[in-house]
Amino acid sequence: MTLKEAQERVDQWIKTYGVRYFSELTNMAVLTEEVGELARIMARKYGDQSFKKGESEDPAEEMADVLWVLICLANQTGVDLTEALEKSFEKKTKRDKTRHINNPKLQ
After folding, report:
1. Cβ contacts of 34 within 8 Å, gap of 6 or more
2. What are the domain boundaries of the chain?
3. How confident is the prediction along the chain (107 residues), in pLDDT tens digits per residue?
4. Of 1.10.20.10, 1.20.1070.10, 3.10.20.310, 1.10.287.1080, which CATH number belongs to 3-81?
5. Residue by residue, what is the 3-state secondary structure of 18-51?
6. Cα distance between residue 29 and residue 20, in whole Å
7. Between helices 81-96 and 3-17, what is the axis angle to 10°?
8. Contact 4, 82 (CB under 8 A)
9. Which residues, 6 or more positions from 65, have their beta carbon under 8 angstroms from its beta carbon?
10. What is this structure's pTM?
């Protein structure tokens, strides 16, 4: 699935099942909540914390939730994620072309 297709599918799902998009501000709060849920799993799985009984240990679901809400926000604000990601690649390549290669911490 391409980013464009994902944006279209989320939009169709919202129109079919979701009644309407939550407000942009609500979705920003939901995005923050989902990132927090992902952070909790990462801290327990790869950090020093341990899982509580019954907690999910799979970050995939939370990553998908983060992506879902980000796509909602992109749709609501008219952002073409494919175009935005292409521009991000260009910016990072121009800015960081040798930065990471020359970073002794990464060697």
Report:
1. 62, 65, 66, 69
2. 3-81
3. 999 999 999 999 999 999 999 999 999 999 999 999 999 999 999 999 999 999 999 999 999 999 999 999 999 999 999 999 999 999 999 999 999 999 999 98
4. 1.10.287.1080
5. CCCCCCHHHHHHHHHHHHHHHHHHHHHHCCCCCC
6. 17
7. 140
8. yes
9. 34, 37, 38
10. 0.91
* Placement of tokens 């390549």 in the chain: 93
For residue 10, the tally of other CB atoms under 10 A from its CB is 20
Torsional sign, CA 72, 77, 78, 84: negative
CA dihedral of residues 106, 91, 89, 64 (deg, nearest 10) = 90
Structure tokens at 35: 């990132």
Tokens at residue 28, please?
Answer: 């920003």
Instruction: Determine the angle formed by the axes of helices 24-45 and 59-77, rounding to 10 degrees.
Output: 160
Which amino acid makes up residue 12?
Answer: Q
pLDDT value at residue 79: 98
